[in-house]
Amino acid sequence: MPQELGFFISLAVALIVAYLVAFWVALLIWTLRDIRSRSRNIVTAFFAVLLVLVFNIPGLILYLLLRPRETIAEQYERTLEEESLLSELEEQGACPKCKARVEDDFLLCPNCRTRLKKICAGCGRSLHLRWSVCPYCAREASPPVAAELTGRLG
Ligand SMILES: [Zn+2]
Ligand SMILES: [Zn+2]
User: Fold this and answer.
1) What residues pack around ion ligand 2 (CB closer than 5 A)?
2) For the chain, domain boundaries
3) Tens place of pLDDT for every residue, the chain, 154 residues?
4) What is the DSSP annotation of 94-136?
5) How far is the CA of 136 from the centre of ligand 2 (A)?
6) Residues β-bridged to residue 118
7) How far does residue 25's CA lie from ligand 1's centre (Å)?
């Protein structure tokens, strides 16, 4: 029965085409999601999707080769790590003026008397000079007057 055979063949072709189209669309969606997690640039995202749209699987392979290596989340994490490493180095105290070794909780450099920390007027803990608020008691940390500091120290 050639008619039925023809029907089955066209059904099979339709199924295969539908499958390919679905696969292609899935590739496009995957690419879009992937590039969006790696780049905030709309133009980059557009070209990435265009690459896969036009070249399909070879385009995807090209995209995988060319895409930014890190996702935005990974970049963010790495920046955080680098920053915390840097601030750790800073904390491992040397006096900013005379480079004498100072401990983390020193208020003044024992060598040149440069002020290293200030004291919170609310809770009395030592604060970084650049902090504008006390992280322990949430009190506004105004730049302390020298007399106040020496008064508290004495
Ligand atoms: Zn010093
Ligand atoms: Zn405080």
Assistant:
1) 120, 122-123, 134, 136-137, 139
2) 2-72, 102-153
3) 577 889 999 999 999 999 999 999 999 999 999 999 999 899 999 999 999 999 988 999 999 999 988 999 998 999 988 888 777 666 667 888 888 888 877 888 999 998 888 888 889 888 888 888 999 999 988 654 544 455 455 4
4) B-TTT--B--TT-SB-TTT--B-EEE-TTT--EEETT-SB-TT
5) 5
6) 127
7) 65
